[in-house]
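Troubleshooting: if your tokenizer reports a length mismatch, compare against these two reference records.
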Amino acid sequence: MILVTGATGLVGTHLLVKLIKEENIVRALYRTETKKEEARKVFEFYFSNTEKHLFDTISWVKTDISDIPALTEAFNGITHVYHCAAKISFNPARYKTLRKTNIEGTANVVNLCLTHKVQKLCYVSSIATLGENPISSQINEDTEWNPEIPNSVYAITKYGAEMEVWRGVHEGLDAVIVNPGIIIGPGFFNSGSGVLFKKIHNGMNFYTTGVSGYVSIHDVTNIMYRLMTGAFRNQRYILVSENLSFKNAFEMMAQALNKPVPKKKASPFLMLIAYYIQRVGSVILNTKQSIFRSSIRTAFLKRYYENDKIKKELSYSFEPIEKSINETANFFLDQV
């Protein structure tokens, strides 16, 4: 039996689609009924009316990876684990929460994989853990983490989670780590890249000059499945289809949504002013803050990620990002 943590997130839900289509027996962890029902809507998007009942063939367990007794019970009979659960935030005030889920939660998963002699673990990390190349803008799987740069709290805790996985490997666990870029896929528009679709639909005017890696959710889940079912072990793989400027990515999203393209170039100074305004508002009025120093830095960094390793080892061809953006935009427009 296969265990999927974080089964109601973007990666987790689409992974369930893949696993069920491949006729696997699956146990999935979820935290709230609301999240589960959101995942059901996305899951059913990929199945005919006569197949939608397959969502209920999944063995659903209501718990999280911090609840060791419940998590221990969920591991009974498990042979393979896809660890997709994570907290995402760039707010330094949420460091302890991020650490508890991303690092301590991953340690719990790794420990139970070892105890239950799980055959293989796949951990979903991020390109955020790959650091920066001091002599080149090109980044690959060998680019070392640099603790001296101002990394976001998200990147720090995801890197700490990777260290827990490698610790498990040293203790005898077979594992693979995937480092996806910005994942594009339908279904969730209050987190991750989905927020961008919502903002652009609502009339986002500004873009920044940074460059990052993008990948389709279908590529992520297809590659994860092939890595877990093949003879791959104790390796990491960057999952990036294309390196795009934020300007180009936003233009594609706007065109797919039939909305105006963001035309105003934001400067670091302008974003810093917005940061201070939000900071004051969060302290005095308890309003939500969405801009942080680390996110400002990321917005202007030009990072180019190599994908040669996974393309070579799997003879894999990535889906064009424009195709994934169009699919995601169409799904979004059906919901509004």
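Reference record two:
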Amino acid sequence: MDFKECFPIWDKLTKEQQDKISKAVVHRHIEKGTVLYNGLDCTGLLLIKSGQLRAYILSDEGREITLYRLLDGDMCLFSASCIMSSLQFTINIISEKDSDIWVIPPDVYKNLMENSAAVANYTNELMASRFSEVMWLIEQIMWKSLDKRLAAFLTQESNLENTTSLKTTHEIIANHLGSAREVVTRMLRYFQSEGIVKLTRGTVEILDLQKLKKLNS
């Protein structure tokens, strides 16, 4: 799959615009654990060819919380924050798996936005979608107990990785949920006592996926 097949509104660009973005876009292979964006630079827009990225925010105390994941075909706008002057918070982007991405220079994309109604509309829709995900997350934090959020996270991870044996740590889970590792450990141990999961070093094995889903309902 090449860039034009992955870029969502390629067919709505003029030939001149297609040529311009094709010449400017850069392909990168990113290894797992690479920090792509930390709010300090205007990296550019990221289009994921394959792999998985994680967008998260970091508190002054060093606590993390996942905002959303970016998968095959997803576009990351917030890594080009310099083209969005109204953005008042810092997002970090890290690769959760080895990934192949295209980087669109911010000045090139900004020019497209200014000269193409299709690009401007797509950008606004994508931004609205991302903010909806963030608002959904806020609602979960405010109104859902940690056991339900943890159950939802483990279910999501199982679906994402297509396995019930999750290679992860209590600290990583805590970072996703914006909680303390000790709190997550206590909740996982409770799940284990209920026969829902089995805990071993570096692994959370889901024993009863239906019970986990029911807990989250």
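Descriptive notes for reference record two:
- The chain is about 45% helix and 25% strand.
- The chain has a mean pLDDT of 91.
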